[in-house]
Protein backbone atom coordinates (compact mmCIF):
# COMPACT_ATOMS: atom_id res chain seq x y z
CA UNK A 1 0.00 0.00 0.00
CA UNK A 2 1.29 3.48 -0.95
CA UNK A 3 1.41 6.11 1.80
CA UNK A 4 1.29 9.85 1.06
CA UNK A 5 2.74 11.76 4.00
CA UNK A 6 1.10 15.17 4.08
CA UNK A 7 3.03 18.13 5.44
CA UNK A 8 2.53 21.73 4.23
CA UNK A 9 0.76 20.53 1.08
CA UNK A 10 -2.87 20.18 2.12
CA UNK A 11 -4.38 19.95 -1.36
CA UNK A 12 -5.03 17.55 -4.20
CA UNK A 13 -4.17 19.91 -7.10
CA UNK A 14 -0.54 20.12 -8.24
CA UNK A 15 0.43 17.31 -5.88
CA UNK A 16 2.98 15.06 -7.57
CA UNK A 17 3.39 12.61 -4.66
CA UNK A 18 -0.36 11.96 -4.67
CA UNK A 19 -0.51 11.71 -8.47
CA UNK A 20 2.36 9.21 -8.58
CA UNK A 21 0.99 7.15 -5.70
CA UNK A 22 -2.42 6.81 -7.37
CA UNK A 23 -0.75 5.93 -10.69
CA UNK A 24 1.26 3.13 -9.07
CA UNK A 25 -1.57 0.62 -9.29
CA UNK A 26 -1.56 -0.14 -5.57
CA UNK A 27 -4.01 1.14 -2.92
CA UNK A 28 -3.20 4.57 -1.49
CA UNK A 29 -3.78 6.13 1.91
CA UNK A 30 -2.69 9.52 3.25
CA UNK A 31 -1.66 10.67 6.70
CA UNK A 32 -1.00 13.88 8.59
CA UNK A 33 0.70 14.23 11.98
CA UNK A 34 0.07 17.13 14.34
CA UNK A 35 3.68 17.12 15.44
CA UNK A 36 4.25 17.70 19.13
CA UNK A 37 6.75 20.49 18.45
CA UNK A 38 3.82 22.73 17.56
CA UNK A 39 2.34 22.14 21.02
CA UNK A 40 5.44 23.53 22.69
CA UNK A 41 5.78 26.89 24.42
CA UNK A 42 8.45 29.46 23.52
CA UNK A 43 11.00 30.87 25.97
CA UNK A 44 8.69 33.86 26.35
CA UNK A 45 5.81 31.69 27.49
CA UNK A 46 3.44 31.80 24.52
CA UNK A 47 2.42 28.81 22.36
CA UNK A 48 4.41 28.14 19.25
CA UNK A 49 1.14 27.73 17.34
CA UNK A 50 -1.71 29.93 18.54
CA UNK A 51 -5.33 28.78 18.34
CA UNK A 52 -6.03 30.91 15.24
CA UNK A 53 -3.48 29.11 13.07
CA UNK A 54 -4.55 25.80 14.58
CA UNK A 55 -8.14 26.53 13.63
CA UNK A 56 -7.08 27.41 10.07
CA UNK A 57 -5.10 24.16 9.93
CA UNK A 58 -8.02 22.06 11.13
CA UNK A 59 -10.33 23.71 8.59
CA UNK A 60 -7.78 22.86 5.90
CA UNK A 61 -7.61 19.23 6.99
CA UNK A 62 -11.40 18.94 7.12
CA UNK A 63 -11.57 20.13 3.53
CA UNK A 64 -8.75 17.81 2.49
CA UNK A 65 -10.53 14.90 4.20
CA UNK A 66 -13.45 15.50 1.84
CA UNK A 67 -11.30 16.06 -1.26
CA UNK A 68 -9.32 12.87 -0.71
CA UNK A 69 -12.52 10.99 0.07
CA UNK A 70 -13.82 11.83 -3.40
CA UNK A 71 -10.68 10.17 -4.81
CA UNK A 72 -11.26 7.09 -2.67
CA UNK A 73 -8.17 7.91 -0.58
CA UNK A 74 -8.58 7.63 3.20
CA UNK A 75 -6.92 10.24 5.42
CA UNK A 76 -5.68 9.40 8.90
CA UNK A 77 -4.27 11.81 11.47
CA UNK A 78 -2.32 11.50 14.70
CA UNK A 79 -0.75 13.67 17.40
CA UNK A 80 2.83 13.20 18.58
CA UNK A 81 6.27 12.65 17.15
CA UNK A 82 5.95 12.40 13.37
CA UNK A 83 8.42 9.56 12.81
CA UNK A 84 6.94 7.52 15.66
CA UNK A 85 3.36 7.98 14.44
CA UNK A 86 4.28 6.97 10.88
CA UNK A 87 6.05 3.93 12.33
CA UNK A 88 2.80 3.08 14.13
CA UNK A 89 0.89 3.28 10.85
CA UNK A 90 3.41 0.91 9.28
CA UNK A 91 2.68 -1.54 12.08
CA UNK A 92 -1.07 -1.12 11.61
CA UNK A 93 -1.32 -1.17 7.80
CA UNK A 94 0.51 -3.04 4.99
CA UNK A 95 2.41 0.04 3.83
CA UNK A 96 5.25 -0.38 1.36
CA UNK A 97 6.33 3.07 0.17
CA UNK A 98 6.13 6.67 1.41
CA UNK A 99 5.87 9.73 -0.82
CA UNK A 100 6.05 13.34 0.38
CA UNK A 101 7.18 16.84 -0.46
CA UNK A 102 10.54 18.10 0.81
CA UNK A 103 10.87 21.39 2.70
CA UNK A 104 13.90 23.61 3.30
CA UNK A 105 13.58 24.21 7.05
CA UNK A 106 16.11 22.69 9.43
CA UNK A 107 13.38 21.00 11.48
CA UNK A 108 11.64 19.76 8.34
CA UNK A 109 14.85 18.21 7.01
CA UNK A 110 15.55 16.49 10.33
CA UNK A 111 11.94 15.30 10.45
CA UNK A 112 12.23 13.74 6.98
CA UNK A 113 15.48 12.02 7.97
CA UNK A 114 13.78 10.55 11.05
CA UNK A 115 10.85 9.30 8.95
CA UNK A 116 13.22 7.78 6.40
CA UNK A 117 15.02 5.91 9.18
CA UNK A 118 11.71 4.76 10.69
CA UNK A 119 10.29 3.28 7.48
CA UNK A 120 13.61 1.67 6.55
CA UNK A 121 13.04 -0.68 9.48
CA UNK A 122 10.08 -2.06 7.53
CA UNK A 123 12.02 -2.41 4.29
CA UNK A 124 10.35 0.70 2.88
CA UNK A 125 11.69 3.88 1.33
CA UNK A 126 10.79 7.57 1.41
CA UNK A 127 10.62 9.44 -1.90
CA UNK A 128 10.77 13.23 -1.58
CA UNK A 129 9.59 15.71 -4.19
CA UNK A 130 10.19 19.40 -4.75
CA UNK A 131 7.05 21.48 -5.09
CA UNK A 132 6.71 24.17 -2.43
CA UNK A 133 8.13 26.84 -4.75
CA UNK A 134 7.63 28.09 -8.31
CA UNK A 135 10.97 26.69 -9.42
CA UNK A 136 12.70 23.44 -8.59
CA UNK A 137 16.14 23.97 -7.14
CA UNK A 138 17.62 21.82 -9.91
CA UNK A 139 16.10 24.12 -12.56
CA UNK A 140 17.79 27.29 -11.30
CA UNK A 141 20.64 28.84 -13.32
CA UNK A 142 22.94 28.51 -10.30
CA UNK A 143 23.75 25.97 -7.60
CA UNK A 144 22.48 26.06 -4.03
CA UNK A 145 25.81 27.50 -2.87
CA UNK A 146 25.51 30.23 -5.52
CA UNK A 147 22.10 31.55 -4.43
CA UNK A 148 22.69 35.34 -4.42
CA UNK A 149 22.85 37.29 -1.19
CA UNK A 150 20.30 39.83 -2.42
CA UNK A 151 16.85 39.43 -3.90
CA UNK A 152 17.61 41.87 -6.70
CA UNK A 153 20.49 39.72 -7.93
CA UNK A 154 18.33 36.59 -7.62
CA UNK A 155 15.46 38.15 -9.60
CA UNK A 156 17.75 39.43 -12.35
CA UNK A 157 19.36 36.02 -12.80
CA UNK A 158 15.96 34.33 -13.00
CA UNK A 159 14.57 36.84 -15.48
CA UNK A 160 17.73 36.88 -17.60
CA UNK A 161 17.60 33.09 -17.90
CA UNK A 162 13.94 33.29 -19.05
CA UNK A 163 13.24 30.41 -16.72
CA UNK A 164 9.58 29.45 -16.37
CA UNK A 165 8.00 27.44 -13.55
CA UNK A 166 7.22 23.86 -14.40
CA UNK A 167 3.68 22.97 -15.35
CA UNK A 168 1.45 21.71 -12.57
CA UNK A 169 1.27 18.03 -11.77
CA UNK A 170 -1.60 16.28 -13.52
CA UNK A 171 -4.95 15.64 -11.91
CA UNK A 172 -4.89 12.69 -9.49
CA UNK A 173 -6.92 9.72 -10.65
CA UNK A 174 -9.58 8.13 -8.49
CA UNK A 175 -9.05 4.73 -6.96
CA UNK A 176 -11.52 2.11 -5.84
CA UNK A 177 -12.55 3.52 -2.47
CA UNK A 178 -10.29 2.18 0.25
CA UNK A 179 -12.23 1.89 3.47
CA UNK A 180 -10.39 2.37 6.72
CA UNK A 181 -12.22 2.75 9.99
CA UNK A 182 -9.66 5.38 10.98
CA UNK A 183 -10.72 7.53 8.00
CA UNK A 184 -14.22 8.00 9.37
CA UNK A 185 -12.85 8.56 12.85
CA UNK A 186 -10.45 11.19 11.49
CA UNK A 187 -13.32 13.24 10.09
CA UNK A 188 -15.24 13.00 13.34
CA UNK A 189 -12.19 13.92 15.42
CA UNK A 190 -11.32 16.90 13.21
CA UNK A 191 -14.88 18.17 13.40
CA UNK A 192 -14.84 17.73 17.17
CA UNK A 193 -11.64 19.78 17.42
CA UNK A 194 -13.04 22.43 15.11
CA UNK A 195 -16.16 22.88 17.22
CA UNK A 196 -14.08 23.48 20.34
CA UNK A 197 -11.83 26.09 18.70
CA UNK A 198 -12.81 29.40 20.25
CA UNK A 199 -11.02 31.55 17.70
CA UNK A 200 -11.84 33.59 14.63
CA UNK A 201 -9.63 34.22 11.62
CA UNK A 202 -9.63 36.57 8.67
CA UNK A 203 -10.36 33.77 6.19
CA UNK A 204 -11.35 30.09 6.31
CA UNK A 205 -8.92 27.27 5.66
CA UNK A 206 -8.97 24.64 2.95
CA UNK A 207 -8.15 24.08 -0.71
CA UNK A 208 -11.71 24.91 -1.77
CA UNK A 209 -11.56 28.32 -0.07
CA UNK A 210 -8.08 29.04 -1.42
CA UNK A 211 -9.06 28.29 -5.01
CA UNK A 212 -12.21 30.38 -4.62
CA UNK A 213 -10.21 33.36 -3.37
CA UNK A 214 -7.78 32.97 -6.27
CA UNK A 215 -10.61 33.01 -8.80
CA UNK A 216 -12.39 35.89 -7.07
CA UNK A 217 -9.29 38.08 -6.86
CA UNK A 218 -8.25 37.40 -10.45
CA UNK A 219 -11.31 36.82 -12.60
CA UNK A 220 -14.41 37.79 -10.63
CA UNK A 221 -13.35 41.19 -9.26
CA UNK A 222 -10.12 41.70 -11.25
CA UNK A 223 -8.61 43.37 -8.19
CA UNK A 224 -5.25 41.96 -9.27
CA UNK A 225 -5.12 44.76 -11.85
CA UNK A 226 -4.67 47.24 -8.99
CA UNK A 227 -2.43 45.15 -6.76
CA UNK A 228 0.67 47.35 -7.10
CA UNK A 229 -1.16 50.55 -6.15
CA UNK A 230 -3.17 49.03 -3.31
CA UNK A 231 -0.77 46.52 -1.76
CA UNK A 232 0.36 48.94 0.96
CA UNK A 233 -3.17 49.56 2.17
CA UNK A 234 -3.77 48.72 5.82
CA UNK A 235 -7.51 48.23 6.17
CA UNK A 236 -9.47 47.00 3.15
CA UNK A 237 -9.62 43.25 2.54
CA UNK A 238 -8.86 43.58 -1.16
CA UNK A 239 -5.85 45.84 -0.64
CA UNK A 240 -3.82 42.67 -1.24
CA UNK A 241 -4.46 39.21 -2.65
CA UNK A 242 -4.76 37.54 0.80
CA UNK A 243 -3.54 34.28 -0.81
CA UNK A 244 -0.72 33.85 1.70
CA UNK A 245 -2.62 31.77 4.32
CA UNK A 246 -3.42 29.04 1.78
CA UNK A 247 0.06 29.19 0.25
CA UNK A 248 1.57 28.81 3.72
CA UNK A 249 0.06 25.41 4.52
CA UNK A 250 -0.05 24.27 0.92
CA UNK A 251 -3.80 24.41 0.41
CA UNK A 252 -2.87 26.46 -2.64
CA UNK A 253 0.07 25.70 -4.90
CA UNK A 254 2.33 28.62 -5.91
CA UNK A 255 2.43 27.17 -9.40
CA UNK A 256 -1.38 27.24 -9.59
CA UNK A 257 -1.25 30.93 -8.68
CA UNK A 258 1.43 31.58 -11.29
CA UNK A 259 -0.27 29.78 -14.17
CA UNK A 260 -3.63 31.34 -13.33
CA UNK A 261 -1.88 34.71 -13.35
CA UNK A 262 -0.50 33.94 -16.81
CA UNK A 263 -3.98 32.91 -17.98
CA UNK A 264 -5.39 36.16 -16.61
CA UNK A 265 -2.74 38.18 -18.45
CA UNK A 266 -3.56 36.30 -21.64
CA UNK A 267 -7.36 36.60 -21.58
CA UNK A 268 -7.87 39.83 -19.61
CA UNK A 269 -4.86 42.13 -19.24
CA UNK A 270 -1.21 42.25 -18.24
CA UNK A 271 0.02 45.35 -16.41
CA UNK A 272 2.46 46.45 -13.71
CA UNK A 273 0.23 45.01 -11.01
CA UNK A 274 0.11 41.51 -12.49
CA UNK A 275 3.88 41.60 -12.80
CA UNK A 276 4.15 42.77 -9.20
CA UNK A 277 2.19 39.77 -7.96
CA UNK A 278 4.71 37.54 -9.74
CA UNK A 279 7.43 39.70 -8.14
CA UNK A 280 6.06 38.82 -4.68
CA UNK A 281 5.85 35.12 -5.54
CA UNK A 282 9.49 35.36 -6.55
CA UNK A 283 10.34 36.91 -3.16
CA UNK A 284 8.70 33.91 -1.51
CA UNK A 285 10.76 31.54 -3.69
CA UNK A 286 13.92 33.45 -2.87
CA UNK A 287 13.53 33.05 0.88
CA UNK A 288 12.89 29.33 0.45
CA UNK A 289 16.05 28.95 -1.65
CA UNK A 290 18.03 31.09 0.79
CA UNK A 291 16.89 28.90 3.68
CA UNK A 292 18.05 25.80 1.81
CA UNK A 293 21.45 27.45 1.41
CA UNK A 294 21.92 29.00 4.86
CA UNK A 295 20.19 26.35 7.02
CA UNK A 296 20.89 27.01 10.74
CA UNK A 297 22.20 30.55 10.10
CA UNK A 298 18.66 31.51 9.12
CA UNK A 299 17.62 31.25 12.76
CA UNK A 300 20.73 32.52 14.57
CA UNK A 301 20.83 35.87 16.36
CA UNK A 302 23.61 37.21 14.13
CA UNK A 303 21.68 36.21 10.99
CA UNK A 304 23.17 35.26 7.67
CA UNK A 305 25.30 38.44 7.85
CA UNK A 306 26.96 37.07 11.00
CA UNK A 307 26.52 40.52 12.53
CA UNK A 308 27.16 40.49 16.33
CA UNK A 309 24.52 43.07 17.26
CA UNK A 310 23.89 43.22 21.01
CA UNK A 311 20.13 42.75 21.13
CA UNK A 312 18.07 43.47 24.23
CA UNK A 313 15.89 40.81 25.79
CA UNK A 314 13.57 43.06 27.76
CA UNK A 315 10.37 41.17 28.60
CA UNK A 316 8.47 44.32 29.55
CA UNK A 317 9.14 46.14 26.29
CA UNK A 318 8.40 42.98 24.34
CA UNK A 319 5.07 42.48 26.11
CA UNK A 320 4.07 46.08 25.33
CA UNK A 321 4.89 45.48 21.68
CA UNK A 322 2.99 42.17 21.53
CA UNK A 323 -0.14 43.64 23.09
CA UNK A 324 -0.15 46.87 21.11
CA UNK A 325 0.74 49.25 23.93
CA UNK A 326 3.82 51.03 22.60
CA UNK A 327 2.32 54.52 22.38
CA UNK A 328 2.67 54.56 18.59
CA UNK A 329 -0.76 54.01 16.96
CA UNK A 330 0.39 52.39 13.71
CA UNK A 331 2.36 49.78 15.64
CA UNK A 332 -0.36 49.24 18.22
CA UNK A 333 -3.23 48.94 15.74
CA UNK A 334 -1.24 46.47 13.65
CA UNK A 335 -0.34 44.33 16.66
CA UNK A 336 -3.93 44.25 17.90
CA UNK A 337 -5.12 43.31 14.42
CA UNK A 338 -2.65 40.42 14.44
CA UNK A 339 -3.80 39.19 17.83
CA UNK A 340 -7.47 39.36 16.86
CA UNK A 341 -7.36 37.96 13.31
CA UNK A 342 -4.08 36.13 12.76
CA UNK A 343 -3.24 38.49 9.92
CA UNK A 344 -1.37 41.75 9.35
CA UNK A 345 -0.67 43.68 6.16
CA UNK A 346 2.81 43.62 4.68
CA UNK A 347 3.20 47.32 5.45
CA UNK A 348 2.16 46.65 9.04
CA UNK A 349 4.66 43.80 9.35
CA UNK A 350 7.51 45.96 8.11
CA UNK A 351 6.69 48.78 10.51
CA UNK A 352 6.10 46.64 13.59
CA UNK A 353 9.24 44.59 12.96
CA UNK A 354 11.34 47.69 12.36
CA UNK A 355 10.01 49.32 15.53
CA UNK A 356 10.84 46.27 17.64
CA UNK A 357 14.38 45.95 16.27
CA UNK A 358 15.40 49.46 15.17
CA UNK A 359 13.71 51.46 17.95
CA UNK A 360 13.34 49.12 20.92
CA UNK A 361 16.46 47.11 20.05
CA UNK A 362 14.76 43.83 21.00
CA UNK A 363 16.11 40.51 19.72
CA UNK A 364 14.55 40.01 16.28
CA UNK A 365 14.09 36.28 16.99
CA UNK A 366 11.58 37.16 19.72
CA UNK A 367 9.51 39.05 17.15
CA UNK A 368 9.82 36.25 14.60
CA UNK A 369 8.65 33.75 17.22
CA UNK A 370 5.61 35.91 18.06
CA UNK A 371 4.69 36.16 14.38
CA UNK A 372 5.15 32.39 14.07
CA UNK A 373 2.71 31.90 16.92
CA UNK A 374 0.08 34.34 15.70
CA UNK A 375 0.08 34.42 11.89
CA UNK A 376 -2.29 32.11 10.03
CA UNK A 377 0.02 32.52 7.01
CA UNK A 378 3.18 31.59 8.92
CA UNK A 379 5.86 30.23 6.62
CA UNK A 380 9.28 29.61 8.16
CA UNK A 381 11.33 30.84 5.20
CA UNK A 382 9.31 34.00 4.57
CA UNK A 383 8.88 34.84 8.25
CA UNK A 384 12.47 34.45 9.38
CA UNK A 385 13.83 35.77 6.09
CA UNK A 386 11.79 38.95 6.35
CA UNK A 387 12.62 39.44 10.02
CA UNK A 388 16.35 39.19 9.31
CA UNK A 389 15.91 41.58 6.40
CA UNK A 390 14.15 44.23 8.51
CA UNK A 391 16.50 43.72 11.48
CA UNK A 392 19.51 44.37 9.26
CA UNK A 393 21.17 40.97 9.72
CA UNK A 394 19.81 39.24 6.63
CA UNK A 395 19.70 39.71 2.89
CA UNK A 396 20.28 43.16 1.34
CA UNK A 397 21.78 44.44 4.61
CA UNK A 398 24.05 47.06 3.06
CA UNK A 399 22.16 50.00 4.59
CA UNK A 400 20.54 50.63 7.97
CA UNK A 401 16.84 50.89 7.10
CA UNK A 402 14.47 52.55 9.52
CA UNK A 403 10.71 53.08 9.37
CA UNK A 404 9.27 56.25 10.86
CA UNK A 405 6.02 54.75 12.13
CA UNK A 406 4.39 58.19 12.41
CA UNK A 407 5.16 59.22 8.83
CA UNK A 408 4.26 55.75 7.56
CA UNK A 409 0.85 55.93 9.19
CA UNK A 410 0.15 59.38 7.77
CA UNK A 411 1.23 58.19 4.33
CA UNK A 412 -0.76 54.97 4.11
CA UNK A 413 -3.78 55.74 6.33
CA UNK A 414 -4.04 59.55 6.38
CA UNK A 415 -7.60 59.58 7.73
CA UNK A 416 -6.79 57.11 10.51
CA UNK A 417 -9.52 54.63 9.53
CA UNK A 418 -7.31 51.64 10.31
CA UNK A 419 -6.12 53.04 13.63
CA UNK A 420 -9.56 54.04 14.87
CA UNK A 421 -10.90 50.58 14.06
CA UNK A 422 -8.32 48.81 16.23
CA UNK A 423 -7.74 51.57 18.80
CA UNK A 424 -11.23 52.81 19.72
CA UNK A 425 -9.72 54.85 22.56
CA UNK A 426 -8.40 57.20 19.86
CA UNK A 427 -11.82 57.56 18.22
CA UNK A 428 -12.06 61.31 18.77
CA UNK A 429 -8.43 62.24 18.13
CA UNK A 430 -8.15 64.63 15.13
CA UNK A 431 -6.48 63.29 11.99
CA UNK A 432 -3.45 65.55 12.44
CA UNK A 433 -2.63 63.83 15.74
CA UNK A 434 -3.97 60.34 15.10
CA UNK A 435 -0.46 58.93 14.67
CA UNK A 436 1.12 61.09 17.37
CA UNK A 437 -1.43 61.69 20.16
CA UNK A 438 1.44 62.49 22.53
CA UNK A 439 1.87 65.80 20.67
CA UNK A 440 -1.61 67.03 21.67
CA UNK A 441 -2.06 69.94 24.06
CA UNK A 442 -4.05 69.45 27.27
CA UNK A 443 -7.20 71.07 25.91
CA UNK A 444 -7.09 68.96 22.75
CA UNK A 445 -6.76 65.81 24.87
CA UNK A 446 -9.81 66.80 26.89
CA UNK A 447 -11.82 67.44 23.73
CA UNK A 448 -10.76 64.02 22.41
CA UNK A 449 -11.79 62.36 25.71
CA UNK A 450 -8.29 60.92 25.94
CA UNK A 451 -6.02 60.71 28.95
CA UNK A 452 -2.49 59.66 28.06
CA UNK A 453 -0.98 57.18 30.45
CA UNK A 454 -4.32 55.57 31.31
CA UNK A 455 -6.53 55.45 28.20
CA UNK A 456 -3.54 55.14 25.89
CA UNK A 457 0.17 54.83 26.76
CA UNK A 458 2.90 57.38 26.35
CA UNK A 459 5.53 56.36 23.75
CA UNK A 460 7.97 53.74 25.01
CA UNK A 461 10.92 55.45 23.32
CA UNK A 462 11.56 58.60 21.25
CA UNK A 463 11.62 57.58 17.58
CA UNK A 464 14.62 59.47 16.20
CA UNK A 465 16.88 59.10 19.23
CA UNK A 466 16.23 55.37 19.60
CA UNK A 467 16.85 54.77 15.90
CA UNK A 468 20.18 56.61 16.07
CA UNK A 469 21.21 54.50 19.06
CA UNK A 470 20.45 51.35 17.10
CA UNK A 471 22.33 52.69 14.08
CA UNK A 472 25.43 53.20 16.23
CA UNK A 473 25.10 49.67 17.62
CA UNK A 474 24.88 48.21 14.11
CA UNK A 475 27.90 50.19 12.93
CA UNK A 476 29.89 48.92 15.90
CA UNK A 477 28.78 45.35 15.16
CA UNK A 478 29.96 45.70 11.55
CA UNK A 479 33.37 46.94 12.72
CA UNK A 480 33.72 43.97 15.07
CA UNK A 481 32.68 41.49 12.38
CA UNK A 482 34.91 43.00 9.70
CA UNK A 483 37.95 43.25 11.96
CA UNK A 484 37.61 39.64 13.07
CA UNK A 485 37.42 38.43 9.46
CA UNK A 486 40.64 40.21 8.45
Automatic annotation (TrEMBL):
- What GO molecular functions are on record for this protein? deoxyribodipyrimidine photo-lyase activity; DNA binding; FAD binding
- Say what the protein does: May have a photoreceptor function.
**What is the top-level taxon of the source organism?**
Bacteria
Cofactor(s) the protein requires to work: FAD; (6R)-5,10-methylene-5,6,7,8-tetrahydrofolate
Kindly state what the record says about how the cofactor is bound: Binds 1 FAD per subunit.
Protein name as annotated: Cryptochrome DASH
Q: Which SUPFAM superfamilies match?
A: Cryptochrome/photolyase FAD-binding domain (SSF48173), Cryptochrome/photolyase, N-terminal domain (SSF52425)
Amino acids binding FAD: 227, 240-244, 280-287, 377-379
| Annotated site, Electron transfer via tryptophanyl radical, chain positions | 311, 364, 387
Q: Which GO terms describe its biological process?
A: photoreactive repair
What does the similarity note say?
Belongs to the DNA photolyase class-1 family.
Q: Which Pfam families match?
A: DNA_photolyase, FAD_binding_7
What is the protein's species of origin?
Alkalicoccus halolimnae
UniProt KW keywords? Chromophore, FAD, Flavoprotein
In this chain the Photolyase/cryptochrome alpha/beta domain maps to 1-134
Amino acid sequence: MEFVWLRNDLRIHDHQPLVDALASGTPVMAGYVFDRKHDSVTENGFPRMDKKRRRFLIESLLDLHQQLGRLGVPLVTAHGDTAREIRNWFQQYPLSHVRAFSYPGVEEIEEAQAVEEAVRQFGSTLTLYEGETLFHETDLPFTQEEVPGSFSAYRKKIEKSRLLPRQEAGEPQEQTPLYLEDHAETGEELMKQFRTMNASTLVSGGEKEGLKRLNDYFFLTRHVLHYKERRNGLFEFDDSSKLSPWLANGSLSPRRVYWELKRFERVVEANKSTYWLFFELLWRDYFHMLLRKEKHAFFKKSGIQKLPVVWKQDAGLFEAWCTGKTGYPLVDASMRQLKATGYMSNRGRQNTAAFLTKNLGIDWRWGAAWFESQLIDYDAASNYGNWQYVAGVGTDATTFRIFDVVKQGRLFDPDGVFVRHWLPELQFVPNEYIYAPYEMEELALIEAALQLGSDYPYPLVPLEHSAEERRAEHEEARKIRDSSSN
